[in-house]
Design goal:
The complex is a heterodimer of chains A (361) and B (362).
Chain A: H1 2-5, H2 15-22, H3 27-53, H4 72-84, H5 92-106, H6 117-125, H7 127-135, H8 153-179, H9 184-198, H10 202-216, H11 225-251, H12 254-262, H13 267-282, H14 284-297, H15 309-316, H16 326-355
Chain B: H1 2-40, H2 49-56, E1 59-63, E2 72-73, E3 79-80, H3 82-95, E4 101-105, H4 111-116, E5 122-123, H5 131-136, E6 139-141, E7 146-148, E8 150-155, E9 169-174, H6 178-189, E10 194-199, H7 202-210, E11 216-220, H8 221-229, E12 237-239, E13 247-249, E14 252-254, H9 258-276, H10 284-287, H11 293-299, H12 305-309, H13 315-322, H14 326-333
Parallel strand pairs in B: 1-4, 1-5, 9-10, 9-11
Antiparallel strand pairs in B: 2-3, 6-14, 7-13, 8-11, 8-12
Helix pairs in contact in B: 3-9, 3-13, 9-13
Classes of the chains: A mainly alpha (361), B alpha/beta (362).
């Protein structure tokens, strides 16, 4: 009797025991541990030295980069250019305001129980783009016009990705529904659209938009290059999105469709109230995956001469006044992308947990 | 049912064939439209380029996406470089304001389309003047603002003093440039062999050379000095004296608007003439009182040179005062005191042993 009430041995081991169990359980594990440990010790130290301890943060110009480490001075000196591109200094408050609104709309999404975060999210997807549409290019409400050729840097990357993501989701949903529609013309058009756009590399789309399209337009009709690229990216992305969502639609059991029919719901209410909420929830990982890849694909606008964050860095690392700042530049770009992509990914995991209603296992 | 299917199949096939022939005629039509389009593009337009530019209030100028000394954004995002100054000079001539110009960064592939389609008013993008480009693209080259040529950067260890000793060398090149073509032309003409090692961007090419992937790096001479300064040990490399190709670089305009062509051509000529006559941005105002008739015509105190081009008569004064003469433009962007550190060489005036020669303003 007394034995049966005894608690199981504690799993919390002393560090030595934990190491023996997890790192040195057999002779080959011990060898691997030692090898990996050696690699970590020899690489992390120099890496940190380069990144932080021996790096140069302060100074005026290239001659102040005397330490052996990275020359972050190059980045800090050009940060303004990397973030805003050619946007005029005195008007940058407009971009800052958009950054702030973007943060207000989306940062609370990571905090459970933040008051009104749902409304902030909805604002981020409706009000924010409308404000941006008036604020960034100017021309209305007495705001000075800033042509899109002056947009650049991180701001341009975010504009491309944000509009691409925002526009491709609804278009993708419509295309996915169209492809599963019973009306032959709608189905046919959806299939053709999806298959054509999905079968073409994004680079080709961008080249067509920037090199071929202007030749076919009448003289004087000049679509902005940015608008052309944006339309190309959005259409291309919608085709991918449609296929991801179609995957979700196909995974919904037939019974759900029949149940909705039995309730007497029409097509749009059936889809909007019964099918899509389940289907979209199921393909969140796929949708987010597409978002993240779009975010990174925006760098391809580099090849049509638009200066996104990578473009601004790439155009200045060749500056002969600075020695070998290419690595610093690319590390900076990688960091920018990592921050945003990791953010999107964390948010989606958050969303998945919250929406989990126990279909899995 | 089966018949229905068959019928559908047949009609589908017909559709496909119909589509194919249609596509063919369409592509021919497009080809013609393209060819004709470039011809008539500006001719059919009601307004001239100059009128358009004046109405817009600024000049739209195509530049590179970042090439040291020619066109590159500085830390504040302002474009600098000799190609950029060439555009600023034209803006100064038209508006009397060197900042009335907007820059469109263009890749090598899209530069000519951008000009043909009217997206930009002039192209000043490190572009080599060749027969094919001049004759078949519906463009006109308005002069030369830099005489470049292709050269070699070698590792001193291989002990070579002349390009003719490079038989069998491994050579780092950047892909997709005319450099690649010039190189194989040169080696074939001399009956020599080489092993090309191709990289995508200029930094990668330098890194490859630096890491010992190749003994030789080839590029335009204007870039070799800058590339050399990026090496971890610049003293271990040297530039060979040979120049294996001619690369006259200059501004380009659309064909079919001779007035605009003349404006761009003569603004550059004015800058070269100004250097020859000793007029600089610093003394341009004093020179207005000069007795030399050549200077008077250049600065517009005598004659109506500007009116003949559709410009204000003092356009020469504005160009030199706001942007400078050719020598100033050269020294500021690529000269010995800049990181590129290029001597004038053949870009010196004809009076100084170079080939920079402009027709007279009279």
């Amino acid at each position: 009797m007394a034995e049966s009430t005894m608690k199981p041995p504690k799993k919390a081991l002393s560090p030595v025991k934990w190491m023996r169990e997890h790192l040195f359980s057999t002779w080959y594990n011990a060898l691997l541990t030692l090898a990996v440990g050696y690699l970590l010790v020899t690489s992390v130290g120099p890496l940190l030295n380069w990144l932080l301890f021996e790096a140069n943060f302060q100074g005026q110009d290239a001659s102040d980069c005397t330490g052996a480490g990275a020359c972050w001075l190059f980045i800090s000196q050009r940060l303004n250019f990397f973030i805003y591109g050619f946007y005029p200094d005195e008007l940058q408050w407009r971009v800052d305001a958009m950054f702030l609104l973007l943060a207000i709309a989306f940062v609370p999404q990571f905090i459970e129980r933040f008051p009104g975060r749902k409304w902030l999210g909805i604002f981020g997807m409706t009000g924010l783009p409308i404000i941006g549409y008036f604020l960034i290019p100017g021309g209305t409400f007495g705001l000075e016009v800033v042509e899109s050729t002056k947009w650049g840097g991180l701001m341009l990357t975010l504009i491309l990705a944000y509009i691409g993501i925002l526009a491709s989701l609804p278009i993708g949903i419509l295309l996915a529904l169209g492809r599963r529609s019973e009306m032959p013309i709608i189905r046919g058009l959806s299939v053709v659209f999806i298959e054509v756009w999905r079968a073409v590399p994004l680079i080709t789309v961008l080249f067509m938009a920037s090199v071929m399209l202007p030749l076919f337009l009448p003289e004087g009709v000049n679509f902005e290059k940015l608008a052309r690229a944006l339309i190309g990216i959005t259409l291309w992305q919608s085709a991918y999105m449609a296929e991801v969502i179609r995957g979700g639609l196909q995974a919904i059991p037939r019974g759900q469709y029949e149940a909705a029919d039995a309730l007497g719901l029409g097509y749009w209410r059936k889809m909007g109230l019964v099918i899509l909420p389940q289907a979209l929830k199921m393909v969140i990982p796929g949708i987010v995956n597409t978002f993240i890849s779009l975010f990174k694909d925006t760098t391809l606008v580099l090849i049509i001469g638009l200066f996104d964050v990578l473009g601004t860095v790439q155009s200045t690392v060749t500056d002969p006044a600075w020695q070998n700042v290419a690595i610093e530049g690319y590390v900076f770009v990688a960091f920018c992308f990592w921050v945003f992509c990791f953010g999107i990914s964390r948010y989606s995991q958050n969303l998945e947990r919250k929406l989990d209603t126990g279909h899995k296992t | 049912m089966a018949r229905k299917l068959l019928k559908a199949y047949v009609s589908k096939n017909q559709l496909m064939f119909g589509e194919k022939t249609m596509r063919k005629t369409k592509s021919i039509a497009l080809g013609i439209a393209l060819a004709v389009g470039t011809f008539t593009a500006s001719g059919a337009m009601a307004a001239t380029t100059l009128e358009n530019v004046k109405e817009k209030g600024h000049l739209q100028c195509g530049v590179t996406t970042g090439l040291p000394g020619f066109s590159q954004p500085d830390e504040k995002g302002n474009w600098t470089g000799i190609d950029v100054d060439t555009c600023r000079a034209v803006a100064a001539a038209i508006f009397g304001d060197a900042s009335a110009v907007e820059f469109t960064p263009l890749t090598a592939k899209e530069r000519f389309t951008a000009l043909q389609s009217g997206e930009i008013d002039m192209l000043s993008r490190n572009t080599t003047w060749t027969l094919t480009r001049d004759a078949s693209l519906g463009l006109n080259f308005a002069g030369v603002n830099y005489y470049d040529g292709q050269g070699f950067l070698i590792n001193k260890d291989i002990g070579v003093d002349d390009a003719l000793q490079l038989d069998g060398a491994s050579i780092c090149i950047q892909a997709g440039t005319t450099t690649e073509l010039n190189l194989s032309d040169y080696f074939r003409a001399k009956g020599m062999e080489f092993k090309p090692i191709v990289f995508d961007t200029s930094e990668q090419t330098v890194q490859g050379f630096s890491a010992g992937r190749c003994d030789v790096l080839t590029s335009d001479r204007s870039q070799l000095a800058a590339l050399r300064s990026k090496l971890s040990d610049p003293s271990a490399a040297k530039i060979l004296p040979n120049t294996i190709s001619k690369e006259p670089l200059g501004p380009v305009v659309r064909q079919g608007d001779d007035q605009w062509f003349n404006i761009v051509k003569w603004v550059l000529s004015v800058q070269i003439n100004a250097e020859e006559l000793g007029v600089t941005s610093a003394n341009a105002d004093d020179m207005l009182k000069s007795d030399n008739p050549n200077i008077q015509r250049l600065l517009g105190t005598d004659g109506d040179m500007g009116a003949k081009l559709g410009l204000p008569d003092d356009f020469g004064h504005k160009v030199v005062k706001l942007v400078g003469n050719y020598g100033e433009m050269y020294d500021r962007n690529v000269g010995p005191d800049t990181p590129l550190g290029l001597d004038r060489g053949i870009n010196a005036l004809w009076t100084d042993g170079g080939i920079m020669y402009a027709p007279p303003v009279r």
